[in-house]
Every structure is written in structure tokens, then in C-alpha cells.
Amino acid sequence: MDELFKTLTSNMHFNATELSDKTWNQNWKVPEGLISIIGLKNGKSPVFYYGLTDNYKEDYVLKKGVSDNKNKFINARLYFKFDRADIIEKEKYVVANGFNGLLLCVKIDKEKFINTFEKMLLEGYNNGDKHIIDVLERMKERNMFNSVEESARYIANRDYNWLIGRLKYKAGLFNYSGQGYWLLPLKTKMEITKGFEVNNKELIVDLENTELFKNYLIYVDIKNNVVRYNKNRLCKSGFSFVDEVRKQMHDDICPWCGGKLRLVKTKRGEFLGCSNYPNCLYRRFLKK
Q: Rounded to an integer, what distance in angstroms lies between the CA atom of residue 263 and that of residue 275?
């Protein structure tokens, strides 16, 4: 929380005021999972009144499957889940007090994502999960890794960068890290914003469903310490996707961490690898 609002309020466009039982006669609890209430002034200067909910969780899932060519695979996926009943109560309060809308905030943390899935994969491997063993061993052989630990880290990095890449493309934020806080409007044009998954008990943010992030309102990049607001939502002045894409088109730059790529030659073959190895395991095989 302190991290979010320290960055958010350092930007001249934003003002944040706490929504608490002292100011609004409501018992707003304050652990994880931010819920913000926003009022727009002239479409440019959001003023935030914020409260928090503890009915929120991050769900890390290893999705296992078999491809058409009979190879086993594993995908690392992250879901943010909010208690639907709690959200409905908060929305009633928002409407009753004349605020413009309810925002849900999720924090995407690269280090936590990678460390969590690396640990889950290695635990499955050590516990004898045949599917995980097959995938990690095949990944080790195919990518010329020295250990299954590198295979597990590679899968976690691969899926993080795949998810974040899709998300940044949909949001038009190519030059930003994708890490940090995303403030997502619960409703757009009086309907649940496209991209939320809704069931009887939960409201779910699925990073694989990037349509939701097209409608983000505010993005706070904690890696670069910048605030980016959605011009299409707040100021109605668009920006060029083509220019943003061109800035990222560098064949000698690692798409995962931004480091330089270098040619690596081994007894088993050669490939372009990241100069930040072993911290970054990205590699590109030129002949494949």
C-alpha cells in the first residue's frame, strides 16, 4: 500500500484520500487486495478515495496437458480472485455515495511469480509427479540446461514473459515492465468490464484474458517508478501503437530482461543466449 500510493501521489495528476471509518463511518479493513473509488474531474485528474478488502487471494496454478504431437506440457498461470459478495457490498456503498465507479487493484510481482512457480515445479519433481518429471527432463535436454532447476526456472520465466507480453500489447504499454499495480474498472458503460470472469462466489482476474487490461485506468510501474494512465479512458487522446512496437524491435536485445544477446557455442550446438545468464535463461536457437 505505501509503495503504491507513494508512487501514485508523486505524479501531479493524482490525489489520494483514505476512505476509513473515521471519514466515512464505514469499517474498511486494510490488509491485501486494494479496492479504490474514483472520481474524475474534467476527465484528467483522478481523485482517489481508497479502502481495502481482505476477501482477496492470489491463486498460482500449474496447468498440465498433452500437445497434439503427444508431448506433455505445463503452463504456469496466475489468477487474482475477489469475493463477489464483498465486491457487491462495496459497489452498493459506492453508488449510494455518488462516486463514479469501483476499481479493483492487482499487483503483478515478477520475482514472486517466478519464485513461486519454480518452487512448485521442483516440489512436484521431488515428490515423483511423473508429468512434471517428464516435462522438466525433456526441457533440460532440449535447451541444453545443466539441471532440472534451470528447467523449472525457464518455464516460470517463459510463462511470466508470455503473459506479460500479451498484457502489455493489449494495454499498449510496450515500454514498461508490466510489473506493479493495475487499477481495473469493475464496470464499463454500466456493465461488468470485459475480461473479468464471474461465477457465483468469485470475481476473477485471469492474466491470460487480456481484454480486461485494455480497459485499465491506471498502471503504476514499480520497477521504473512511473505512473501511466489510460489516455483512451481519461483524456480521449490516443497514441501510436506502431511507434511503440518499433522501439522494441532489436534482434540483439533479450526480450525477457533487456540484456544483450550473445552467441553461445557448446558441444551440443550453438544458440543466442542472454548475457545475464544464469539470472536470465532466455535463449534463441537460430536453426529451429
A: 9
Scanning the structure block, which residue is given the C-alpha cell 455518488?
A: 98
Is residue 52 scored above 90 in pLDDT? Answer: no
* Model confidence, pTM: 0.74
Strand order in the sheet with 72-83: 56-66, 72-83, 202-206, 196-198
Contact call for residues 156 and 182 (beta carbons, < 8 A): no
Contact 125, 135 (CB under 8 A): no
Per residue in 10-24, pLDDT (tens digit) is 544 444 555 555 554
Secondary structure element (H or E) that encloses residue 271, with its range: strand 269-274
98-126 pLDDT, tens digit each = 556 677 888 999 999 999 999 999 999 99
> Which residues have CB under 8 Å from 93's CB, separation 6+?
26
Backbone angles phi, psi at 122, to 5 degrees: -70, -35
DSSP H helical ranges for the chain: 2-8, 21-24, 84-96, 110-126, 130-142, 148-171, 211-214, 231-234, 241-247
Sheet holding 226-229, edge to edge: 15-18, 47-52, 34-39, 101-108, 180-185, 218-221, 226-229
CA distances from 232 to 13, 142, 214, 235, 245 (A): 16, 44, 10, 6, 18
Lowest mean pLDDT among 28-32, 98-102, 228-232, 284-288: 28-32
Residue 31: cis peptide before it, omega within 30 degrees of 0: no
Distance of CA 248 to the CA centre of its chain: 19
